[in-house]
Amino acid sequence: MISKEMESRIDKFIEENRQNIVNDIAKLVNIKSVSTHSDDPNSPFGEGCHKVLDKALEMCEAMGFKTRNYDYYAGSAVFGSGDKEIAILGHLDVVPEGEGWSHDPYDMIEKDGYIYGRGVADDKGPTVVGLYALKCMKELGIQPNYTFRLVMGCSEETGMGDLPHYLEAEKMPTFAFTPDADFPVCIGSRTYNSLTPFFGAFGARPDQCYFLGEDGKVITNLVGGTVSNAVCASATATLKGVTEADLGSYDKAVYSVEAVEGGIKLTAVGKTAHAAKPEGSINATKVLFELIATLPQLSEAEKNAVKVVAEVLKDCHGAGIGVEVEDEPSGKLTHINGVDAMENNNLQLKLDIRYPVTMKGEELFASIEKHIAQIGAKAVLRNNSVPCYKPADTPEIKTLLAAYDHVTGEKGVPYTIGGGTYARRFDNAVAFGPHFHNMPNPCGEGKGEEHMPDECNSVDFLMKALKIYILSLIGLNELSL
Description:
Helix content is 28%, strand content 25%. By secondary structure, it is an alpha+beta fold. A six-stranded mixed beta sheet has the order 1-2-6-3-7-22, with helices on both faces. A hairpin with a 3-residue loop joins strand 15 and strand 16 (331-332). Helix 3 crosses helix 9 and helix 8 runs antiparallel to helix 9.
């Protein structure tokens, strides 16, 4: 792939910049940049995203790269000036920190070869690694045949509302990859829709939701979760006319009770996971309603509502919503509940559904809508994205795999995922690392991974990813795209 002399120079660059990379990741992680809607035109995704983009662009400029700020929707740094462009698609926003951290999630720490903090894995750490891949090419004196652009978005975790604004200003790259998945290379992602079942168990008909009123309303409020693309980790229901004694014997490690005027607040905790990989998670909403279901005070309408929740959340592969499907390229459909609310006296569970790349969203939604109606609720489709699938037998994918194989000594096999990365919004893009399946998790089950408490990343594995990216960019530079 490259000469031994060039590889030696790359290895030297990585070793010399190891601590610089860790330090620069910390500069970004230590800024809380949860993307939120803002009416401030100078901070469309909130003050935190404004500040973190400023810091990232400052870092890029210090390395000698030309930068651009797209009105705080996104930023970029470029190396080279070719007519065609190869892009690295990173993002600087993060999901909310949630509960269960062993330390301050916005004060990155390094311990035993791992860094800890919100964003070290998704996606501030990988974005910094992408920046250093460009820095290495620049310092090696490689003549760029393309414009290499590092894109730094500010709203990947909240619907990718940053990209339309960015793509109004910049042309679509000829090829792009996002460092926001696993190696070896993700050539497709199950497309997804966001759906809200409005539980008609508050009324007799599935197309209407009635106030419980006359027959004894017990469930007066429901709040749960923080983001729709992570399994609900904590859910709380306010229950009128209920005491702690009415709950009987319950697991105090899972449930907590707070007395309020006229009743109690019952909270359940679960185990979160990314919506793309829900296996092994525990949905707090499901756990909450399992205990609520035992209350004798529930009206018939509320009992029906509890049954609807139990049905929808009985699994994470579509059985509970009437679409237990799969295909060869991408495997099983997944669905999770991320956010709960109670509005206009109706329970709402926001679902994140990742369906196989060969299937049509409108057909699946028709099946979901029918199933939800049959069990006593009304489904509302909030968003449906298009599939993302790239054939593996292309020069670009072969180049990425060659770099991976060279560094790891393995034979990488392309795969598909359920995640919704930036790759789905670009014409010719894939998700490429930086995570390795064999990276140990020092935090134990339910912690350490992206979107989880104690999110962490191995510095050694990040350096390995950096080398793969450098070799990939050098290889891509030699292609005729």
